[in-house]
Design goal:
Number of helices of chain B: 11
Order of helices and strands of chain B: HEHEHEHEHEHEHEHEEHHEH
Number of strands of chain B: 10
Largest interface: A-B, 52 and 55 residues
Shape of chain B: globular
Number of helices of chain A: 20
Shape of chain A: globular
Distance between the termini of chain A: 65 Å
Helix content of chain A: over 70%
Number of domains of chain A: 1
Oligomer: heterodimer
Structural class of chain B: alpha/beta
Largest sheet of chain A: 2 strands, antiparallel
Helix content of chain B: 40-55%
Largest sheet of chain B: 10 strands, mixed
Number of domains of chain B: 2
Structural class of chain A: mainly alpha
Radius of gyration of chain A: 23 Å
Order of helices and strands of chain A: HHHHHHHHEEHHHHHHHHHHHH
Number of strands of chain A: 2
Strand content of chain B: 15-25%
Chain lengths: 499, 320
């Protein structure tokens, strides 16, 4: 095994004292920016690029990788405690995580997120070390038709999973798909539904929608009920650590989340959102206690958090082997490589093995550091929840607005945030699920361009979607998932009639 | 945080002390990058920031990102806020020229003051290694045979890649309105489509696909630069007998209505920066080519580019 020898050499590089210091700075910075909504890891790395120009390439790339992993960790903290996802990949974590926190189980929720992220990143980094060249061959074969099939599965499962009925789920999804149409169309460069407002030309920002629907909508909802019921601060029940039951309910979702996150993250247009949504759906179907979902099921935190972090390692596969950045952070890291005259691509592993394997090894080390850093902080974080409810929600409102303004300083953005907050309040009031709206906004434009690219390549023949086995199978699964529940219900009724 | 506190005090003092036209080395400027972190304009702005400060041509340089709509959101904000300002600059390029036309933007590059053209990168026309096309002539014959079956992959619609695809189609004697161009967000995703063999040919900045061209996964047929470039085997379209040239240029602008003295200070600072060894070293590392032109030449250049781009986009059907 050549890879193993190289990896050991990589550890020798990564364990040099200076490189350890860079990794530590990286994870600290990354966690800090992950906790703050608005400032993402991409911007942090971009700000640091000129600073690191004089450093050696190994050290600064190790630091960037630490920021990337740290950001992925930090994002889950605010999602769980404040229902304010700092980035689109933590939207799912907020669903069950915040419910757990509000039932006094914030400690175990944070712990399973931290340990799950650790396990996932560990396995996925191993995958990066040994499977990268193989995986990338499969990934580039993934055509637009296959992406369309994957999106369809995500649409159907998500709208069927969330909410009290598939119809309500599909209604929410439709709102999201409509929001996703706003802005410049990628394939023709023409604007749609922007009504001449320049701030809408690039579409609706996912974090604005998510923070508006989740945080602001939630705050409005609490205020509307607060007049009648006097709520006490949330008491912490039981241990702040994970119980034996928590462990046994968490470890399988960690593994399954990793298995979803890593390969989808490695796809050139995969991203971190799809695997988190799919993982949530899967855990809900497989759970022995599905009735707990929606009221704080630990599986619903463990799985998506693992998927989220595994996909972060996954995005490094196309970056290192093809020079293909699939996330904003990866794009900035690519610029980092270029400033040292290194061109990521098929030759990078051959030309600079010490650097690449040093980076892989430092990902392992960054992981260990993150766990050591995050677990002791759990006790500190959960104390946030002892703040009286009116104060807590006032704080969330300030925090959410500030984050949005920091990311995109414009009046339009703030008005959108308020509008989405009100929409979120109405949806809660009338029992429509919120997550499918976010899914529609994220995946709608991707599905749109995947479908139209397929049709462009087939000169308008829709059969192209069924001619490729991959997309045919995925479209079949999606259809089945949509129709099956109705069929079963019909069948059950039919049998009842027979009796 | 004392470091930042000191900087803040220094900055405040400097604003009080700097009365009258500032000498270049006392210059404090902010550069607006009309794109998100990580893109070409952002790295151009940050590279300029780095070298202007390290060569002492400016005391402090800040980079502000205003992303959106091919740079037109940043341009609109800049036109409104930098009127007559001696210390604000904007980065832009050929993609912005195209975006202004396709988006029907309220402001164009005649509303700002060109300071200098900085870099110009060649675009490359490539095919997957498995493609039957060995030369540019083969590809041209393929386009002539069936223009719609020739599927192109490249960056955003109406951008430089799309314009080059239209120019090549036109040169093959076909209607550019029929060009089957599949737009991707940047050269990365288009690269995946090329490696997966889903498209006939692709266009990207040479640097973005350099690794794959050198490893033999892609075959470069031609570059769009007017002259051959050292270290690039693919020959210019011009040298291969096709009268096409297109350079992905980037430049820097100052606000509208800036005074001649202030403009001279900025011009001097930028031209000194660009001539430094540090700048040449840095652009070589980034895979960019020096394409410097002073304010006057750059102004004429933009006018002719705007006309040309408008013509091509109209022929594709993206502009009136």
């Amino acid at each position: 095994m050549d890879s193993l020898v190289y990896l050991l050499g990589g550890f020798a590089t990564a364990l040099e004292p200076m490189n350890l210091v860079f990794a530590a700075i990286g994870v600290l910075l990354g966690t800090a920016v992950g906790v703050l909504p608005g400032i993402g890891p991409a911007l942090t790395v971009a700000l640091l690029l000129p600073v690191t120009f004089k450093l050696d390439p190994g050290g600064s790339l190790i630091m960037f990788a630490g920021i990337y992993y740290g950001g992925m960790y930090g994002g889950s903290t605010t999602a769980i405690l404040l229902n304010t996802p700092g980035e689109s990949a933590s939207v799912v974590t907020a669903l069950e995580g915040n419910q757990m926190a509000r039932r006094g189980r914030g400690g175990p929720a944070l712990a399973t997120a931290a340990i799950g992220s650790f396990v996932a990143a560990l396995i996925a980094t191993l995958g990066l070390a040994f499977l990268a060249p193989l995986l990338v061959k499969v990934a580039v074969k993934f055509g637009p038709w296959d992406y369309f099939g994957l999106m369809l599965i995500a649409f159907v499962t998500v709208s069927a999973t969330f909410g009290s009925s598939p119809l309500r789920g599909l209604t929410s999804l439709a709102i999201g798909l409509w929001l996703g149409l706003i802005g410049i169309d990628q394939l023709t460069g023409q604007t749609r539904l922007a009504f001449g407002v320049p701030n809408l030309f690039d579409g609706i920002e996912v974090t604005t929608l998510a923070v508006g629907l989740f945080a602001i909508g939630e705050a409005l909802h609490v205020v509307s009920r607060h007049l009648r019921t006097s709520e006490k601060p949330i008491a912490i029940k039981g241990s702040i650590w994970m119980s034996r039951e928590d462990w046994s309910r968490s470890w399988k979702p960690w593994i399954r989340g990793t298995a979803l996150g890593f390969p989808i993250g490695a796809l050139p247009a995969g991203g971190a959102e799809i695997p988190t949504f799919l993982s949530y759906t899967m855990e809900r179907k497989l759970s022995k206690k599905p009735e707990e979902f929606g009221t704080g099921a630990i599986e619903g935190v463990a799985g998506p958090e693992a998927a989220n972090n595994a996909s972060a390692a996954g995005t490094l596969v196309p970056l290192l082997t093809l020079g293909l950045p699939t996330s904003a952070t990866a794009a900035v890291m690519l610029a980092g490589f270029q400033q040292y005259n290194l061109q990521p691509g098929p030759l990078l592993f051959v030309q600079y093995p010490a650097l690449v394997w040093g980076l892989v090894a430092s990902l392992f080390i960054a992981n260990v550091m993150l766990l050591v850093l995050n677990l002791p902080l759990v006790g500190l974080w959960v104390r946030l929840l002892k703040i009286p409810v009116p104060w807590l929600y006032a704080g969330i409102l300030v925090f959410a607005s500030m984050g949005t303004i920091a990311a995109n300083p414009s009046v339009v953005e703030l008005l959108l945030l308020l509008g989405f907050g009100f929409l979120g309040f109405l949806m809660r009031r009338y029992d429509y699920p919120i997550a499918p709206v976010v899914v529609g906004l994220i995946l709608g434009p991707l599905a749109d361009s995947a479908l139209r690219r397929s049709l462009q390549m087939s000169l308008g023949d829709p059969m192209i979607l069924l001619q490729h086995p991959g997309s045919a199978i995925m479209i079949g699964i999606a259809t089945l998932a949509l129709v099956a529940p109705f069929l079963f219900r019909g069948l059950a009724k039919f049998r009842q009639d027979e009796d | 945080m004392t470091f930042f506190a000191n900087r803040l005090v220094a900055a405040c003092l400097a604003t009080f002390v700097a009365i009258g036209p500032a000498a270049a080395q006392d210059l404090e400027v902010s550069i607006l990058a009309p794109a998100g972190a990580g893109g070409g304009w952002d790295s151009a702005a940050r590279s300029l920031q780095q070298v202007m400060m390290s060569t002492g041509n400016a005391r402090s340089v800040q980079v502000v990102n205003v992303p959106g709509a091919g740079g037109t959101v940043g341009l609109a904000q800049f036109v409104q806020s930098a009127e007559g300002s001696p210390n604000q600059m904007l980065v832009g390029g050929i993609t912005m020229v195209g975006a202004i036309i396709t988006n029907g933007a309220p402001y164009d590059l005649t509303n700002v003051t060109p300071i200098a053209r900085l870099t110009g990168d060649p675009l490359v026309i490539a095919v997957p290694a498995s493609s039957p096309y060995q030369t540019m002539a083969d590809l041209m014959a393929g386009i002539e045979g069936n223009v719609e079956r020739t599927i192109w992959a490249g960056g955003s619609a109406g951008g430089a890649d799309h314009i080059l695809a239209a120019l090549v189609t036109q040169a093959a004697g076909q209607d550019p309105a029929k060009v089957n161009y599949v737009a991707y967000s940047g050269g990365g995703e288009a690269l995946a489509a090329m490696l997966g063999g889903q498209v006939t040919a692709g266009i990207s900045g040479y640097g973005e696909w350099q690794g794959q061209i050198e490893s033999g996964d892609l075959r470069a047929l031609a570059i769009s630069y007017p002259e051959p470039i050292e270290g690039i085997d693919a020959q210019p379209l011009k040298a291969q007998g096709y009268d096409i040239e297109l350079v992905n240029w980037r430049g820097i602008f100052a606000g509208p209505g800036i005074s001649d003295e202030d403009k001279a200070v900025l011009e001097e600072a930028v031209s000194n920066t660009v001539q430094s060894a540090e700048w040449q070293e840095l652009i070589a590392a980034r895979g960019w080519s020096d394409y410097y032109a002073g304010s006057e030449e750059f102004t004429d250049f933009i006018a002719s580019e705007a006309e040309r781009v408008h013509e091509v986009l109209s022929s594709i059907g993206l502009a009136n």
